[in-house]
Amino acid sequence: MKNINEYKFWFVVGSQHLYGDETLRQVDAHSRAIVDGLNAARQLPCPIEWRPVVKTPDEITSLMRLANADESCAGVIAWMHTFSPSKMWIAGLSILNKPYCHLHTQFNRSIPDKEIDMDFMNLNQSAHGDREHGFIGARMRIPRKVIVGYWDDAPTRAQLGSWMRSAIGALVSRSLRVMRFGDNMRQVAVTEGDKVEAQMRLGWQVNTWPVGDLVKVMQSVTDADVDEQTAIYAKRYAVDTPHIDAVRYQAAEEIAIRRMLEAEGCSAFTNTFEDLHGMEQLPGLATQDLMAEGIGYGGEGDWKTAAMVRIVKAMTEGLSGGTSFMEDYTYDLKAGEELSLGAHMLEVCPTIAEGRPRIQVHALGIGDRNPPARLVFEGHPGSATAASLVDMGGRFRLIVQEVEAVKPIYEMPNLPVARVMWKGLPSFIEGTKCWILAGGAHHTVFSYDATYEMLADWAEIIGIECVRIGAGTSAESFKRDLFLADLAWKLR
Ligand code: MN
């Protein structure tokens, strides 16, 4: 797994030979200053790299070829300081396969009242140069992010940083490998999906390995390995159980799963309680700790959510809110103050915990195995998103609901799993109605760091539908939008 700061973005400035060498020198200098300023503000997830100004169709096309070939280049940010006739961009943009952002800004913040003359106007003409560039993006109907704002303003950088994260998510998606242990839970529909379509569209390689192989790897784990992993648990979490053997069993499971993931280049996995051949416990603590290290996970064979958890974790690396696999479990329906209780039978990621998670061992009502060790904690309050990727048949839809997590209003001392409570926007009734109309699953990626905009930009780059349920959404217009969008996607 690549770290987020191993990526970079190319800053590409378009111009032409019309204005003479002196103007082009200034374009170079100004664009360098913008790149230096953007990097120095330390608000972006990874560096932006300056590229020399492009002035001809050949220069543009060869630059796009290089961007495609450079594995560390996660996207191209284009800006027109002067006027760059955009038919020159057609060949380059049509081969570009990296995420593309059009940053509409200008070098100077203010119009210099006394000094402004025609030379100044010829150099500082982003206002119309970027309109010419915007047209070709629209005409070619290429996925693009348009950001408007002064480059040295924090909100502009925030938007750029958010899009850069989406772009990295797209790159991670295109090379993602998901390991399945066992098949989908019997008879469940929403966690099914077309793995060939997923690979063509989202880039995911989703393949299966026998649980028996995992058990064999577990048998090769030594006591010393387990000692080491158990010591890591004790450092990260509060050990709140006398059943250390159960904890040690989870340690062996974690080590074995990690070894198999690494051997196959996978960064997400799924398993199911219906297929635990030879395993004494359903992985709980093991899965939770792997998720905390950035591994994607989805329960009951849900490879789509496993992949999405990995992608959102990669996108939001370095942010502090946390991201987890989640399941809508049960409600508190006090009129007007309705809350959702999210949890899973074990596997909630401790990156979203308030306070120090506790390792406990309890019996599991489902399945036929020994009581598994797991982390128990409360999720912290704060704004979050719940996202679900569903297969609509021939295409995918990403459903994103904006929610407000609260401190759980009950102690729930007999609930032996991690729990989160939240208020769905725009309201429980309207928001839940929209979710069900859109076909959103019970499994989600729950993230305090990924915003709707970040996820929607990711979906646009990848080329799938994304729908938002949040403040201001009405079920009536949402239903009509779903209907129209379904027609539009069929025409694409
Ligand atoms: Mn589940």
Briefly characterize the structure.
This protein has 492 residues and is α/β, with parallel strands linked by helices. The chain has helices at 21-40, 57-69, 90-95, 118-123, 126-140, 154-174, 195-202, 211-219, 223-236, 244-264, 285-292, 303-315, 428-438, 452-462, 475-491; strands at residues 8-14, 48-50, 73-80, 100-104, 145-148, 177-181, 205-209, 238-239, 268-270, 296-298, 323-332, 339-343, 353-361, 373-379, 382-391, 396-406, 419-424, 443-447, 465-469. The chain has 15 helices and 19 strands.
Task: Give the overall average pLDDT.
Answer: 97
Q: What is the first-to-last residue Cα distance?
A: 33 Å
Summarize the biggest pleated sheet. Answer: 6 strands, antiparallel, barrel
Please tell me the total number of domains: 2
Q: Find the structural class using helix and strand composition.
A: alpha/beta
Assembly type: single chain
How many beta-strand runs? 19
Bound molecules: manganese (II) ion
Relative strand content: 15-25%
Q: How helical, in percent, are the residues?
A: 25-40%
Low-confidence stretches: none
Number of continuous helical runs: 15
Shape: elongated
Computed CA radius of gyration, to the nearest angstrom: 25 Å
What does this structure look like?
The structure is a single chain. With 492 residues, the protein is an alpha/beta fold. The protein folds into 2 domains: 171 residues, 3-Layer(aba) Sandwich (Rossmann fold), CATH 3.40.50; 315 residues, no CATH class. Helix content is 39%, strand content 23%. The protein contains 15 helices and 19 strands. Helix 6 packs across helix 14, helix 9 packs across helix 10 and helix 10 packs across helix 11. The structure holds manganese (II) ion. Manganese (II) ion binds next to loops.
